[in-house]
Amino acid sequence: MVITTVAVGVLAVLVTAAVCAVVVAAHVRSAVSAATGESSGRADAEARHADERGRSVDRRLEALHGELGRITGVVADLRAERAHQHGEFLARLADTTRATTDLHRTTRGLREALANPKARGQWGERTAEDILRRAGFVEGVTHVRQRATSCGSLPDVTFLLPGGLVLHMDVKFPAANYLRALEATSPADQGAAEKAFLGDVRQRIKELGGRGYIDAATTVDYVLLFIPNESIYGFVHDRAPTLVDDALARRVVLCSPFTLFAVLGVIRQAVDALRLEKASDEILGCLAAFGDEWGRFCDQLERVEKQLDTAARGFDALAGARRRQLQRKVDAARQLGEERGRPPPEPTAGAVAGGRPVGPPAVSRPSPTGLSRAPPADGRS
């Protein structure tokens, strides 16, 4: 727009200059005609001078016409470019209008959905379920949904902890007055809606404290209240800082989507620590049982060692003194046989080892003591 205005101004100036030049040329020609009667010589000179001025003006007019044509082309280009830019601007404006309309429609639908307590509860349950899934929790393994307690209450989520303990969480949060505060058109209406909203939050905390979600025998000492929106959680902390302390005094922990991740991390860490402790106890039990078995093994080993020692001493006595006594009897019997003309019996294989007999000699009829009986003097057997 500014460039077009400047171009039009320049064009007007040039046209004015051209008109002034034409007027000056006409006045010059009139002056020349008037002075013709004075003198012919002077008239010729002035005529020539006037012609030169006229030709100069014509040349200037031609230059002005060329410049005017160039400026006219520039202005036409500027107008075409402005029309193109204006068309693009209108198209973008139409796209922005459609996006704004869609956003307004979505916001209105979300507002209407959140105004319904049932839909608001379903939204909170869906948000909590997505967070649990992202944190690695598995339904039926780490937590259950909508399981009644011994008092008859029905928490939205129950976390299963080691040792038979559970932790309950409720995801139904009052947000109707908060939406009214956002839609309020006057500061008075906004303040009243905010005050009513904080009152609803306090009432909800009192309800959770009296529903029997906390049992010293089966649950931990706290219950979780899930707020499915960070802006609502920040509004509560900003407008009512003491409300969080009041909730903790009633053993109710307020959790936003971000803080719920931290709470779930603590729960998983506690579960892992307890599992590690349980595994350590099992290992210690196995080591204790191994110690008991090792003690019994050592006792039995000592008894076997004593028995082997006793057997070794008996064997040494048998292979020592008793064996020498038997060997002397055998030698005497063999000598007696040689004296009576009977050849001594040949020792059996393995009867001699290292120059010493290792067993009694082979005789025809061994006696119970392992000695061969000598034949009687009359030759009868």
For this entry, give a set of tags:
5-stranded mixed sheet; single chain; 381 residues; alpha/beta; disordered C terminus; 68% helix; two-stranded antiparallel sheet; Trna Endonuclease, Chain: A, domain 1
Task: Report on this structure.
The protein is an alpha/beta fold and 381 residues long. Among the domains are: 2-107; 122-275, Trna Endonuclease, Chain: A, domain 1 (3-Layer(aba) Sandwich). The protein has helices spanning 2-34, 40-115, 117-134, 176-183, 187-209, 230-239, 241-249, 257-339, and strands at residues 143-145, 157-160, 166-170, 223-226, 252-255, 352-353, 356-357. The strands form two sheets. The protein has a five-stranded mixed β-sheet with strand order 1-2-3-4-5. The chain is elongated and about 205 Å long.
Task: Report a brief summary of the structure.
The protein is of the alpha/beta class and 381 residues long. Among the domains are: 2-107; 122-275, Trna Endonuclease, Chain: A, domain 1, CATH 3.40.1350.
Q: Based on CA inertia axes, which overall geometry fits?
A: elongated
Series of H and E elements:
HHHEEEHHEHHEHEE
- The averaged pLDDT comes out at 76
Total helical elements:
8
In terms of DSSP E residues, the strand content is: 5-15%
Q: Percentage of helical residues? A: 55-70%
Largest sheet: 5 strands, mixed
At the first level of CATH, what is the class of one domain?
Answer: Alpha Beta
Beta strands, count:
7
What is CATH's topology name of one domain? Trna Endonuclease, Chain: A, domain 1
> What is the spatial order of strands in the main beta sheet?
1-2-3-4-5
SS-based class: alpha/beta
C-alpha end-to-end distance: 159 Å
Radius of gyration: 61 Å
Which regions are unreliable across 5 or more consecutive residues at pLDDT < 50?
Answer: 349-381
Q: What is the CATH architecture descriptor of one domain? A: 3-Layer(aba) Sandwich
